[in-house]
Amino acid sequence: MSEAEAKPAGRAIPAPAVTVESKPFWDAAAEGRFLIKRCTACGKAHWYPRAICPFCASDDTVWEESPGEGVIYTFSIMRRSPTGPYVIGYVTLDEGPAVLTNFVDCDPDSLKIGQRVKVRFQPTEGGPPAPVFRPA
Predict the structure, then answer these.
(1) Is the pTM higher than 0.90?
(2) Which domains are assigned to the chain?
């Protein structure tokens, strides 16, 4: 891996705050499954998973397993880091929601807006693994 490549283990990711509302998501992440929420009232999928739909304010939401695939909407390469360059940005999931994430397992300079990506889970500092995305 060249110095210009994002190193998945090079930058520690803090443990997420697990709440009663988000616990099913983090439990699934520990099993390698990516969940999103879908509102059964309006039919829209949303991210970050929460009990109340951000589109219609209904509390009639359900967990749905997602393949965790989508396209890069935007990204930024962080070159000034003691652990080397890393990339953050948004992925638009095939189901519709946009996810703020880290991009891993890639040469940052080869990423393109519209590029297909897929989720994988990266260990955190003492918590459940966090979703990150890599080129598909």
Answers:
(1) no
(2) 23-135 (2.40.50.840)
